[in-house]
Amino acid sequence: MGPLHTDYRGGTVTRKAFSNIMTTRELVTLFILSSLGGALSTFVGYLGNLINIAVGVPFGAGQIIAGLHVFWIVLIRVLVPKRGSGAFAGLLKGFVEMFTGSTHGIVIVIVSLIQGVILDIPSISPNGPSSKSVIERLNWWLFAGLSSSSNVIVFQLFYFTGTPLIYISLITILAFCSGIIFAGYFAWQTLAFLEEAGLTNHLPAEEGVSRSIMIRRNLPAIAFVTFLILGSTYYAVAIADVFADPYSCEVTGLVETPYLYRPADFSEYEVTIVAELQGAYTHIPPTNYTGVLLSTILGVAEPKPQANGIQVIARDGYSITFDLQTVLDDERLLLTESNDGLWLIAGNYEGSAWVKQVTELYVY
Amino acid sequence: MLEARDVSFSYGGESTVLDSVSMTLERGELVLLTGPTGSGKSTLAKCLAGLIPHVIDGTLSGHLAVEDNDLDSMRISEIARRIALVQQDSEGQLCTLRVSDEVAFGPENFLIPENELAQKVTRSLEEVERPDLLDRATYQLSGGEKQRVAIASMLAFRPDYLILDEPTSSLDPAGTRRIRHVLSNLKSQGMGIICIEHRFERLQSIADRILHLTGDDIVPFSPPPEVGPLAITSSVEQDSDPLVRAESIAYSYGSRQAIQDITIEVDRREVVAIMGDNGSGKTTLLLLLAGLLSPHRGLVYLDSEAIESLPKTVVARKTAVVFQNPNHQIFETTVWREQTLGIDIFELQEEEALGRANKFLDLAGLADTRTRNPFSLSHGQKRRLNISSIMVHEPELLLLDEPFIGQDVEGRKFVQSVIHSTVSRGGSAVVVTHDSQFAAQFCDRLVFIDNGRILLDGMPADVMKQLGKLGRSEYVNRLGDV
Amino acid sequence: MASRIGFMDVKSPVHQLHPLTKLWMLLTLNTSIILYQNGAFGLLVLSVLVLTFRLAKVSLARLTRKMRFILVFSILLFIVQVLVTTNGTVFLYLIPRIGQVGPALPVTDYGISRGVSIMLRFLVIVLSSMLFVATTDPTLLSYALTDIGIPYRYAFGLVVALRFLPLFDQENETVRMAQHSRGIYPEVGGLHKILRTIRYTFFPLLVSALMKAESLSLSMDGRGFGYQDTRTYLRRPTWRHRDTAVCFLMTMILAGVILAILGLLPQFLSV
Question: What residue in B sits closest to C198 (Cα-Cα)?
Answer without folding.
Answer: B331
